[in-house]
Structure formats: structure tokens, C-alpha cells
Write a structure and sequence with these properties.
The chain is mainly alpha-helical. The protein has 2 domains: 78 residues, no CATH class; 92 residues, Serine Threonine Protein Phosphatase 5, Tetratricopeptide repeat (Alpha Horseshoe), CATH 1.25.40. It is built from 9 helices and no strands. The longest helix has 36 residues. The chain starts with a helix and ends in a 5-residue tail after the last helix.
Length: 181
């Protein structure tokens, strides 16, 4: 009988401490959600990650926290969306240098929409296509880049991004010509 009583009081204490932990977890989630509503997305993400680490046993709460984190991360990404031509082009260059040529091309395309005759944009597009092994697209944009600024020819001749397509006839033609209109 004494063992049963001891077991019941232990369960009561465990239940009481889990109720207390759950209350703390709810309070943490509430603070994070308030930060989210104030537009403090980075702070909310930090708080939600801390909640997950502090209360790993609270699965449902952590599922909800991950949902809020996704909302925050989407808002953060949207806030960092480039607004000007320069920001758009720079974002493309950052992605290009990080090796994400597909995403870089998307930003270059947006930059090209903003300034269709910009030689730098054509040069970056040519280099990205070269990395992808797309010699015809690269040659097309490289020719436009060189037409906009002859310096682009000099740059392209030593740019390692073009290494994979240097043997392509169109590229050889561009690199060997000195009279591009």
C-alpha cells in the first residue's frame, strides 16, 4: 500500500512539473507569436528555435512553432527581395558566385527586363550559360555584352566561367574577332 501511495505522489509531481513545463512552453510560444505580429521576424525565429530546444517533448507545440517559423522565414525572404536594378543584378552575382547558376539566371533575367541594353547583365548571363555548358545562349549574350562594351571581350577571354565552352565555334569566333559591331 505504501508503494502505491509513493507511486501516486510521484506521478502527481511528474504531472505537476509537466504542467508547469507546458505552461512555460505556451508562454514562450505566445511571446514568439507577438514578435511575429510586430514584424520582428528574425527575433521570432530565434524564440521559436529556442522553444523547440527547450521543450522537445512538446510535439504539437513544436509543430506549431515550425509553422510559425515558416511564416517568418517567408516574410524575411520577401523583405530581402531586391527592389532596384543594382540590387537585382547584385543578387544574381551573389548566387552565381555561390554556384547557384539557375537562380542567378532568374535574377539576371529580371535585371535584363529593367535594363535590356546593359552590357554587364549580358556578360553575366553569358558567363552563367557558359557554366551550364549552354554555348549558343552564352555566345548570344556575350556578343551583346561586347557590343555594349569592348572591355567585356577582354574580361571573357580570361574568365574561367567560359572554360567549359572555349572550344565552341561561336565562342572561338567571338574571342578571335576584333570587329564586333
Amino acid at each position: 500500500m505504501a508503494a502505491q501511495k509513493s507511486s501516486r505522489s510521484t506521478r502527481k509531481r511528474a504531472s505537476s512539473s509537466s504542467d508547469e513545463a507546458f505552461s512555460k512552453a505556451i508562454a514562450s510560444l505566445d511571446k514568439a507569436v507577438r514578435a511575429l505580429h510586430r514584424g520582428e521576424h528574425e527575433k521570432a525565429v530565434e524564440m521559436l528555435k529556442a522553444l523547440e530546444q527547450a521543450f522537445p517533448e512538446e510535439r504539437e507545440l513544436n509543430d506549431r512553432a515550425r509553422s510559425y517559423m515558416a511564416v517568418c522565414e517567408k516574410a524575411i525572404a520577401g523583405a530581402k527581395r531586391p527592389k532596384t536594378f543594382e540590387e537585382t543584378l547584385n543578387q544574381g552575382v551573389i548566387l552565381h558566385n555561390a554556384g547557384d547558376v539557375g537562380q542567378a539566371l532568374k535574377f539576371y533575367s529580371k535585371a535584363l527586363d529593367l535594363e535590356p541594353k546593359n552590357g554587364n547583365v549580358h556578360y553575366y548571363i553569358a558567363a552563367a550559360h557558359a557554366l551550364d555548358g549552354d554555348a549558343p545562349s552564352s555566345a548570344k549574350h556575350l556578343e551583346l555584352a561586347i557590343q555594349a562594351d569592348r572591355t567585356n571581350l577582354i574580361l571573357a577571354k580570361s574568365d574561367r566561367d567560359f572554360d567549359a565552352i572555349r572550344s565552341d565555334e561561336a565562342i572561338i569566333g567571338l574571342f578571335s574577332t576584333s570587329d564586333i559591331a
